[in-house]
Write a structure and sequence with these properties.
alpha+beta; 2 domains; 4-stranded antiparallel beta sheet; 4 helices; 18% strand; binds zinc ion
C-alpha cells in the first residue's frame, strides 16, 4: 500500500505514482488487493482486513518459495539418508513381510473352497509402521476388492 501524497510505501507493497481516475480522492492504493483507500483510517482498516491479510501471507509464501535455493547434491544425500533411516526404523522386516504373506495365503486357502477362482494378494504395504493388514481380492472375471484389517499379521 502506498501513500500518494507522500509517495511512501506502507506495508510491503510497491510504490505507484498514478492516481486513479475512478477514485480521485484515494490517497492510498493496495496493489495486492487492487483496492483504493481515501483516508489513512480506511487504509489501516483495510490492512487489518482478513482478505488483505490472507493475500499478504500468500504473497510472502510465494516470495519465500521463489527464493528457495535449487536442490543440490547435499539435499539429495540428506533425503537419501533420511529415507534409509526411516526404512530401517519403521519399515517392514523380511519376517514382517513373510508373516503377512502367510496370512494372505491362509486367507486364500480358506476362501477358495467357498469362492472358486479367488486370489488374495498383499496390497499397499507402504504404511509399514501401521498394524494394518491390507489385502486385495480378485475373483476371476470381476473387479478387485481391497480389505483393510485393523489386526496385525
Ligand atoms: Zn490489500
Amino acid at each position: 500500500m502506498i501513500c500518494f501524497s507522500h509517495r511512501v510505501p506502507i506495508a510491503h507493497l510497491q510504490l505507484s505514482f498514478q492516481r486513479s481516475q475512478k477514485f480521485p480522492k484515494a490517497q492510498y492504493y493496495c496493489r495486492l488487493c487492487d483496492y483504493h483507500c481515501d483516508t489513512l483510517t480506511i487504509c489501516i482498516s483495510h490492512i487489518k482486513d482478513d482478505r488483505h491479510s490472507r493475500l499478504a501471507r500468500m504473497q510472502e509464501v510465494e516470495t519465500t518459495l521463489y527464493h528457495l535455493p535449487k536442490p543440490n547434491r547435499q539435499h539429495l544425500d540428506y533425503l537419501d539418508n533420511l529415507l534409509a533411516r526411516t526404512q530401517s526404523e519403521l519399515g517392514l522386516t523380511p519376517q514382517d513381510i513373510q508373516d503377512r504373506m502367510d496370512v494372505a495365503a491362509l486367507l486364500g486357502d480358506v476362501l477358495k473352497p467357498v469362492i472358486p477362482g479367488i486370489g488374495v494378494d498383499l496390497s499397499d504395504q507402504s504404511c509399514a509402521s501401521s498394524p494394518r493388514f491390507n489385502a486385495s481380492f480378485q475373483v476371476a472375471g470381476s473387479a478387485s476388492m481391497d480389505l483393510v484389517s485393523a489386526a496385525s499379521a
